[in-house]
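Title: Comparing notes on inverse folding

I've been comparing how different people in this forum approach sequence design from structure. To keep things fair, I'm posting one structure and asking everyone to reply with a full sequence. Here's the target:
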């Protein structure tokens, strides 16, 4: 079983005629994802490797019965692209684009409260249900179908933990990248709630990093609501206060929250073992199963 995407998901690629959009569309199709359409304003009527291109998401959804989109639109226009997707009947929008202006995401965040569509990202690697579908840039070859869910703010951490899990013969139900920006759609708590409700997910890995308080909120949710065991990893333990470390949301202000120590402490208090390395995370998961 899976959450959010499977082999029935019908995908629109927003920005399919751009370099990134075209390349990753080919990768998604090769993995088996059911990409039914693309969009690029002014290029409707063309096709990309046989996939029809429409001017708008609304046209693509209506003509091809799509239910999810993945956004490969440049940052200056990506906020509008996400807005356009939220104005359709899509169930899921995955925003891969990095560098969307914060003021644009603030408007998107407000719009999300008015619609039923779920947003992953922005600045995320996407989502994958092994052997069924991937939406985004994740390397499909390291994933294996199984019974462990994974949610992460970091693409690289996702790959490292999954590689260690797969090497131990531990497969995944679904892996979700939620993104490393200060304003994102789906949170850790949202994803954990979905995994807890999935009867085929027997354990969950949560990969966080310094900055913000999402991991502390997730720890509280785990303690209060989850029976499924969770293992954790927190990146950025040696980052100096005030220093931005890669992700826009990974900055510690010095207020005492958002540090690696506060996140690890909160998770430990919730009964979540936190590995010092991705391999230790896999060891904890192996102990659960």
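Reply #1:
Here's my take.
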């Amino acid at each position: 079983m899976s959450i959010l995407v499977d082999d029935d998901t019908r995908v629109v690629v927003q920005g399919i005629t751009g370099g990134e959009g075209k390349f990753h569309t080919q990768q998604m199709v090769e993995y088996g994802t059911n990409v039914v359409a693309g969009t690029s304003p002014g290029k409707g009527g063309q096709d990309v490797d046989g996939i029809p291109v429409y001017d708008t998401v609304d046209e693509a959804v209506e003509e091809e019965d799509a239910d999810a989109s993945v956004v490969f639109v440049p940052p200056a226009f990506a906020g509008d692209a996400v807005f356009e997707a939220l104005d359709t009947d899509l169930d899921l929008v995955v925003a891969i684009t990095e560098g969307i202006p914060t003021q644009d995401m603030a408007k998107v965040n407000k719009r999300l409260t008015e619609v039923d569509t779920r947003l992953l990202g922005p600045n995320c690697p996407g989502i994958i249900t092994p052997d069924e579908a991937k939406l985004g840039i994740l390397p499909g070859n390291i994933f294996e179908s199984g019974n462990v869910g994974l949610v992460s703010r970091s693409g690289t951490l996702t790959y490292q933990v999954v590689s260690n899990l797969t090497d131990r013969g531990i497969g995944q139900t679904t892996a979700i990248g939620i993104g490393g920006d200060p304003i994102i759609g789906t949170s850790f708590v949202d994803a954990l709630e979905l995994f807890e409700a999935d009867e085929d997910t027997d354990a969950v890995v949560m990969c966080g990093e310094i900055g913000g308080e999402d991991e502390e909120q997730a720890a509280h949710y785990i303690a209060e609501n989850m029976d499924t065991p969770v293992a954790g990893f927190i990146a950025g333990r040696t980052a100096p206060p005030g220093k931005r470390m890669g992700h826009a949301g990974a900055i510690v202000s010095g207020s005492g929250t958002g540090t690696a120590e506060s996140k690890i402490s909160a998770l430990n208090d919730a009964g979540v073992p936190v590995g010092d390395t991705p391999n230790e995370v896999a060891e904890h998961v192996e102990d659960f199963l």
